[in-house]
Amino acid sequence: MEKFRLGKTDMMVTRLGFGGIPIQRLTELEAVKIVRRCLEHGVNYLDTANGYTTSEERIGLAVKGRRQDVFIATKSGARTREEIEKHLDLSLKRLGTDYIDLYQFHQVGDFPTMAKVLDPENGLIKVFEGFKKAGKIRHIGVTSHQMDVAKALVKSDRFETVMFPFNFITNEPADELLPLCREHDVGFIVMKPMAGGMLENAAVAFKYLFQFPDIVIIPGIEKLPEIDEIVALFEGPHRLTAAEKKLMKKLTDELGTRFCRRCDYCQPCTQKIPISMVMTFPSFVKGLPPDWYLKSPWIPAQMAKAADCSQCGECEARCPFHLPIREMIAEHYNLFEQIKAKYQV
Q1: Cα radius of gyration rounded to whole Å, the chain
Q2: pLDDT for 286-299, tens place per residue?
Q3: 43 lies in a domain?
Q4: Residue 173 above 80 pLDDT?
Q5: Which range of residues forms the domain containing residue 190?
Q6: What are phi and psi of 128, to 5 degrees?
Q7: CA–CA distance, 13 with 163 (Å, rounded to integer)
Q8: Residues with active-site annotation
Q9: Same structural domain for residues 190 and 287?
Q10: Please, are residues 68 and 33 in contact by the beta-carbon 8 Å criterion?
Q11: Residues 165 and 287 placed together within one structural domain of the fold
């Protein structure tokens, strides 16, 4: 499988990687089979996170005896030195390794968080740099969903990679972020190539991304035929057909008006509703086991706030994509309540 240099890391990674969220829903045996099928196809970049419940352990089992053949990327969403240290130790244990190839700050989504990470005196990046010096991690990256923050993170020149949503609906990175990454030699990792499960046509989704040769795409894989199909697309013609271009436009027109980019330009909400989280709740339902979000220490409480929407409309006035936010908040809150009732939570 074709490889390229992932920014300053100098890691020669396959253009197709593996996203470790969906394997949480599988049995351990099924999950290990999925990861090993990816390895059989030549995929050498595996992405997971401390917060993905069983994902790290299952990847660790799958790569046992083949650690030198793969690059493992994981993440920590902790925001204190002590919690980050706990997360790294736990990730190393779960993955069955003594080093992480790429360790990432998970979801740096606003400028106050960025300041906390990069503070010259006590920035959390110093903790990561200490891990790197000790040999526990080899490279430092960051993930984000907010364009202005992501661009500032790249410009800081403190990170070797950035992970950001990118697909033919959320296509802003092509013009705004990817050129900046190239300028600063920051590796670009694509999350949500299928728009968080909103896109079902893999051919159109991946052929759009194939035009960018210096990105690693990490679809979440849950079934063996899924990875087989995507690999076949990589090996086949990359040019979009006329019919596929027509379908891409149709899907963009249909989904673009109801697809939240989590840019948070809609905030602040007068009722303190976490709008982007509520707007993307269906992606949790599609991609994660119910226990992950129903028994989360924070998601149920945040979703409950959606009931307080005052219908003021200020969020919609600020949304650059003109989404029907009030309507979608109500729909997603009702979905949350239905799922709670189904599982008697």
Answers
A1: 20
A2: 878 899 899 999 99
A3: yes
A4: yes
A5: 3-240
A6: -60, -40
A7: 15
A8: 52
A9: no
A10: no
A11: no
Q: Is the pTM of this model over 0.85?
A: yes
Q: Under 8 Å CB-to-CB from 94, ≥6 apart: which residues?
A: 56, 57, 60
DSSP state at residue 3? E
Please give the tally of structural domains in the chain: 2
Q: What is the pLDDT of residue 281?
A: 93
- Whether residues 308 and 235 share a domain: the answer is no
Distance CA 19, CA 220 (A): 4
Same structural domain, 96 and 185: yes
- Do 68 and 184 belong to one domain? yes
Residue 250 lies in a domain: no
C-alpha 121/C-alpha 9 separation (Å) is: 25
Same domain, 209 and 297: no
Tens digits of per-residue pLDDT, 77-132? Answer: 999 999 999 999 999 999 999 999 999 999 999 999 999 999 999 999 999 999 99
Mean pLDDT of the chain: 95
Residue 148 falls inside a structural domain: yes
318 with 177, same domain?
A: no
Statement to judge: residues 171 and 98 lie in one domain: yes
Q: For residues 251-261, b (16+ Cβ closer than 10 Å) or e, as one string?
A: beeeebeebbb
CB-hemisphere CA count at 13 Å for 107? 9
- Helix axis angle, 202-210 relative to 224-235, nearest 10°? 40
* Tens digits of residue pLDDT in 195-237: 988 898 999 999 999 999 999 999 999 999 999 999 999 999 9
| DSSP sequence for 42-97 | T--EEE--TTSTTHHHHHHHHTTT-GGG-EEEEEE---SHHHHHHHHHHHHHHHT-
CATH number of the domain that 211 lies in? 3.20.20.100
